[in-house]
Amino acid sequence: MSWGFLRDLLSGVNKYSTGIGRIWVAVVFIFRLLIYIVAAENIWKYEHDEFECNIKQPGCENVCFDHFFPISHIRLWALQLIMVSTPSLLVVFHVAYRENREKHHNQKLYKSPGEIDGGLLCTYLISLILKTGFEIVFLVLFYKLYNGFKVPRLVKCDIRPCPNTVDCYISKPTEKMIFICFLVATSCLCIVLNLSELSYLIFKYSIKCYLKRYIKKHQ
């Protein structure tokens, strides 16, 4: 899979972001997307082939693997990356709409089509709320699916067609757990950045509205 589209999307959003938003783009691009492409993808590449159980009963190993890994960590991580990045398209589309509107009317309708104010501010706030929501949903999903953020060395399985309780071994559990902890840490950092940017924009807009009312009142 080519991640070029996600890189281009993040680069486009960076032009219309606040300072905190640019930090978020850097964290997603450097500490999540690049880490995924360069290192994490290879660790889970052969996870099914390297999952071993101490029994040769046909189908037992496959059923146990499916039970303990209903969704691959790496595929869920990829889905999370896509989902938390796509709300930024709302901002890009809104700016494109403004630019197209100016061309259609052949006059300057906005001080700057990319300036975060009015309708674009609402769109930006909605994108931040969606990104934060997706981050939290995926963290909860990770926790629920894998019973925490730990990767055990040994799991016991007694699901049919296994004739009895068998021991199954996960390959490179320590390395996988390090990357999962890194994933959780970067997700939490992104949540903090999104909430900080949300608070900053609301506070800035509130101060701006208050000053306008204050000036009008004294005039």
Automatic annotation (TrEMBL):
UniProt keyword list: Cell junction, Cell membrane, Gap junction, Membrane, Transmembrane, Transmembrane helix
Task: Choose one Gene Ontology CC annotation of this protein and give it.
Answer: connexin complex
Domain (Connexin cysteine-rich) spans 134-201
GO MF annotation, one? gap junction channel activity
Location of the Connexin N-terminal domain: 42-75
Q: What is its main location?
A: other
Looking up SMART domains in the UniProt record yields: CNX, Connexin_CCC
So where does this one cross the membrane? Answer: 21-39, 77-97, 118-143, 177-203
Recorded topology in the membrane:
Multi-pass membrane protein
- List localization entries: Cell junction, Gap junction; Cell membrane
Which GO terms are recorded in the biological process aspect for this UniProt protein? cell-cell signaling
Q: How does it assemble?
A: A connexon is composed of a hexamer of connexins.
Q: What is the purpose of this protein?
A: One gap junction consists of a cluster of closely packed pairs of transmembrane channels, the connexons, through which materials of low MW diffuse from one cell to a neighboring cell.
Q: Which family does it belong to?
A: Belongs to the connexin family.
Query: Which protein, by its recorded name, is this?
Result: Gap junction protein
